[in-house]
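Q: A reviewer asked whether we had any structural model of the full assembly, not just the individual parts. We don't, so I'm hoping you can provide one. Inputs are below.
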Amino acid sequence: MPEGDSLHNIAELLRPALLDHELTAISVPRSRGMYRLRPGDLVSAVESRGKYLEIEVERGLVLRTHLRMTGSWDLYDSGQRWRKPRHLARAVLETARHVAVCFAAPVVEVGVIGDGRLDHLGPDLCAVDVDIDACVQRSLDADPNLEIADLLLDQRFAAGIGNVYKCETLFARGVSPFALAGSIGAAERQDLFRTAAGLLQQNLGRWRRRTHGDGMAVYDRAGQGCPNCLDRINVRTHGLHGRMSFWCPTCQPER
Ligand SMILES: [Zn+2]
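A: Here is a predicted structure for the entire assembly that you could use as a starting point for your response.
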């Protein structure tokens, strides 16, 4: 699933092919709104912000995609066969030598650089100089009855954590996913955001995630043994958006 680290890696993949290159053909079939990229636009930036990818052109426009659960970006040489069918393409950017294709993303839009569309996002946990205190401060606005699992997923507090890093971070700090935000003070929140940032950043540039030893501690390991205590890892769907949490009931006791 695309989380902050994946978006950072996608930006790294696309940047050399697109940055400072002229677009020769563009297709963004479902883009609404008044702005369009056009042939001749020169790409001036390729950046991830939280779970968004932004591709800017010199004319002051930006293509933004959010992949959610289904989307992906691929890069091909011109003429190379695509790995997915053309009808799934939501954005196609061609240069003289490459074709970057965004498949099945639910959010694809063209806007104006600096239009503030992403101002709601918290600090990007994939940035090495991320301001953890600012994440904690923002999170103090959260409803105290919100489960901590949902607080970590809320991109307004800190950008980049998806379900994998949510589960792995809570395990690493021994916090139950069902603990209420009100029971978790500023110091413990700082610990959680710092842990998430560390796990995300250690996976930048890697295509196979490792958050514990050679793989994951709890994510997608329901029924298997906890790496610390060998108790059985549980899974449950819960919270605001019905997301799954994987956790060890011994290492992450309910409060
Ligand atoms: Zn355990």
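A: Points you may want to mention in the reply: The first helix runs from residue 4 to 18. The pocket of zinc ion is lined by residues 226, 228-229, 231, 248, 250-251 (CB under 6 Å).
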